[in-house]
């Protein structure tokens, strides 16, 4: 197994551990694992670019990313929306997953070596911990975050890569 692929697998594991801690209602630990996933995602990309990126690695990365930056953030949001006075809003985080899948599929079939098309899904792994650690988890903020993030991921906005 290549080093980049190993780091990608650690990203997926970290995303799973984030989900596990959400289910245990240990939201701070869940957010720490989301942040660890961001670091691992950055590292796997860095290592892959040093070597020769493979189609397998690109697919593996997308599968890991949907766990860490799609499912984990969506589940985190569900918790706060279910507790709101509008529990039907708890269906809304499904948009994060759908938009994330769409964004990753588009990434895998287009050349985004110079510019990203749409907001990278990894941003969810930064935004959700930010919302948690700044205590901005009321249902209205979570609602706005889901709508904005989902729209930005599927948008045609071009973001220059570093």
What this model shows, in words?
Helix 2 (27-50) packs antiparallel against helix 3, helix 2 (27-50) runs antiparallel to helix 5 and helix 4 packs parallel to helix 6. With 162 residues, the chain is mostly helical. The longest helix is centred in the middle third of the chain and has 28 residues, at 55-82. The protein has a two-stranded antiparallel sheet with strand order 1-2. It has a single domain (3-160), classed as Four Helix Bundle (Hemerythrin (Met), subunit A). The mean pLDDT is 95. The chain has helices at residues 3-23, 27-50, 55-82, 94-109, 124-133, 139-154; strands at residues 115-117, 158-160.
List keywords for this structure.
162 residues; mainly alpha; Four Helix Bundle (Hemerythrin (Met), subunit A); two-stranded antiparallel ribbon; 6 helices; 4% strand
Provide a count of the helices.
Answer: 6
Sketch the topology as an H/E string, one letter per element: HHHHEHHE
Number of strands: 2
CATH architecture: Up-down Bundle
Mean pLDDT: 95
Shape: globular
Strand content: under 5%
Largest sheet: 2 strands, antiparallel
Strand order of the largest sheet: 1-2
The rounded distance between the terminal residues' Cα atoms is 27 Å
CATH class equals: Mainly Alpha
Count of structural domains: 1
